[in-house]
């Protein structure tokens, strides 16, 4: 009986060895299949917790791999992600310049916002708001000082790399002859629209953005071939809602800084810090905590059933 309880705990907590987990789970399923023949009601009762736990376990193991990566590898991937995320600003800016100033034009141009997220997520580059979910799950499962230190290192390196990549993109877009005057004016318009928010509005909207990205990360393992559509739908909602994102917004804010429309104080205290705090709270302290609490509750139910 104690072995069965131990296996139930493994299904929810797991370890760092994905292959070992897979083999153990396969063995458990084989034994359970023989023991539970004819007990369909019990299987149905346990189906939902096991599905939720499977997603949780997959994301947690991805987070463990990220926590174990070297700082230089994380930094290079994060810089690449920051540059890729600037494609959202580029695509939306080009559409804004070409489309009429109307409600329909706004809805169409918001599709451009999704481009950066598609590039980053499919390329598996290091995006800060994505790591607020995957990297924090193993820390919640084993909240040791070492794990918290690894999480702090990963967040710091990835955030710095993302912002550096966004800043590099903004400088490149402004000083190299890539776009016409209409597109440059569109970049400024997009940035000024974002900066119309007060610091508190930035913070509140960033909470929703963090929640949406966390939800996106949670949905992707089960999305299959619909992965791209899930990314488009979730990030499109962010665009039309004007929900602020620290990396996408950084490209727009740095662009405004370079042309002299805002100063460093506005960049940091009106946009940067409130948006960062909101993204972290929405993606980590709300979504990840609730999701982890759900799995912990399922684990307790599973252990009681086996006893």
Blueprint (SSEs and pairs):
Layout: H1 2-13, H2 18-35, H3 40-68, H4 71-98, H5 103-109, H6 114-122, H7 128-134, H8 136-141, H9 145-175, H10 181-195, H11 199-223, H12 227-241, H13 246-259, H14 264-306
Biased composition (Basic and acidic residues): 26-47
GO cellular component, one term: plasma membrane
GO molecular function: formate transmembrane transporter activity
Give structural attributes.
mainly alpha; Glycerol uptake facilitator protein
Write the element-wise H/E pattern from the N-terminal end onward: HHHHHHHHHHHHHH
Strand content: under 5%
Give the total of beta strands.
0
The dominant shape is globular
Weakly predicted, low-confidence segments: 1-27, 33-48, 300-304
Transmembrane segments: 67-92, 104-123, 154-176, 202-221, 228-248, 268-290
Organism: Vreelandella arcis
Biased composition (Acidic residues): 10-20
Main location: membrane
TL;DR of this structure?
With 307 residues, the chain is mainly alpha-helical. The chain has 14 helices and no strands. It has one domain: Glycerol uptake facilitator protein (Up-down Bundle), CATH 1.20.1080.
Describe the structure.
This protein is mostly helical. The protein is built from 14 helices and no strands. It has helices spanning 2-13, 18-35, 40-68, 71-98, 103-109, 114-122, 128-134, 136-141, 145-175, 181-195, 199-223, 227-241, 246-259, 264-306. Mean pLDDT is 83; it is low at 1-27, 33-48 and 300-304.
